[in-house]
Design goal:
This protein has 360 residues and is of the alpha+beta class. It is 41% helix and 22% strand. Helix 4 runs antiparallel to helix 5.
């Protein structure tokens, strides 16, 4: 007999902004954006719920955020503080299980099928974790409880902020069938628009399509969508899941010859990479430029800074410097890529391991 997993997905509420409002009373109750700037440069990392009422969202350009909310207050991110708070949250998780899979500083999956304290109820564990985070750290978190990772993640987002949603085996299918298509994990704005144009507005509509048809229309994602709407997800919670790098690349329909065209494409890639980094709460020190030429030969060039960053502005400066040192020899370019690595958490772990080895 298959044992049903007990999975909890914990997602902190407006994490960066909530930490800033906790630490600085004058920011409480105010429309706040962490990241970006009042001069319209950069993008928002996290918006407080007061700012979200105006439509301000993470990864939104500052200029757009200001248009939506002219009285928006901007503050610089304090990643060292967020990391410290995140470590304390993980310590609370470890009271109940060691099967913890962090997705970023502010969210994680927990497998509590067998919990350390013998509580036996995933719902009670989720309540206890939320209570401890509120009492000990003066922050709120939302929790989703279900039989797999995918459903737990959807559940945690259902009653934000400070919510707790339980979806037991008998509730999963009815819940997914009525769920608006844009609420499904992995369905972005573009995909949602495409689905709606096909008459797919909720889970029930999506279930009408076969796996073959979904793959034909959406490629590899179609297979994921087919199983997703049926609540099928066999992925295990994997502890120590650490991203070593995050990158983005683009292959061009027409090979690039002019340097200005290459610069323009690289700037666009840096903008997109910034959004991915903010979504995953990552800062890195090493930027890598990837170039594939028309003859399919490929080169990479890297630069490691003494400082951490995740802003498009910094990455553009570094990537243009790397590009200027590449001898193009009148070659055409068919692909460009930008990658950031040497992340804050990874470097911190290396330092801690070195320190341990000194005493062993």
């Amino acid at each position: 007999m298959e044992v049903k997993r007990k999975i909890i997905h914990i997602d902190m509420d407006a994490f960066y902004a909530s930490v800033e409002q906790r630490d600085f009373p004058e920011l409480r109750g105010k429309a706040l954006a962490v990241g970006g700037s009042p001069d319209g440069r950069g993008v928002v990392a996290t918006a407080s719920y007061e700012a979200r009422k105006y439509g301000v969202r993470s990864a939104m350009p500052s200029r757009q955020a200001l248009q939506l909310c002219p009285h928006l207050i901007f503050t610089r991110p304090r990643f060292d503080v967020y990391k410290e708070v995140s470590d304390k949250i993980r310590a609370i998780f470890r009271r109940y299980t060691d099967l913890i899979e962090p997705l970023s500083l502010d969210e994680a999956y927990l497998d509590v099928t067998e919990d350390k304290q013998g509580v036996g109820s995933a719902i009670e564990i989720a309540k206890a974790i939320k209570s401890a985070i509120k009492e000990e750290l003066n922050l709120t978190a939302s929790a989703g409880v279900s039989v797999n990772k995918f459903i737990a993640k959807i559940a945690s987002d259902y009653q934000k902020p400070d919510g707790l949603t339980f979806l037991g085996p008998s509730k999963v299918i009815p819940f997914l069938e009525q769920l608006p298509i844009e609420k499904f994990f992995g369905v972005g704005k573009v995909t949602a628009q495409k689905m709606k144009s096909m008459g797919i507005h909720c889970g029930t509509d999506l279930k009408q399509l076969s796996e073959v048809d979904l793959i034909r229309r959406f490629g590899k994602s179609g297979k994921f969508f087919y199983h997703m709407v049926r609540g099928e997800d066999n992925r295990e919670v994997k502890p120590n899941r650490i991203s070593k790098s995050i990158g983005i690349e683009d292959t061009f329909e027409t090979d690039l010859r002019e340097e200005e065209d290459m610069k323009r494409e690289l700037e666009s890639l840096c903008d997109k990479l910034e959004k991915r980094l903010l979504t995953k709460s990552k800062q890195g020190r090493t930027i890598t430029l990837k170039i594939k030429f028309e003859d399919f030969t490929q080169i990479t060039r890297s630069f490691t800074s003494p400082f951490y960053t995740n802003t498009a502005e910094d990455m553009k400066t570094q990537i243009m410097e790397l590009l200027s040192k590449v001898d193009m020899q009148d070659k055409k370019v068919r692909l460009l890529g930008v990658t950031l690595s040497n992340f804050y958490e990874n470097d911190l772990e290396k330092v801690q391991n070195r320190q341990l080895s000194l005493f062993e």
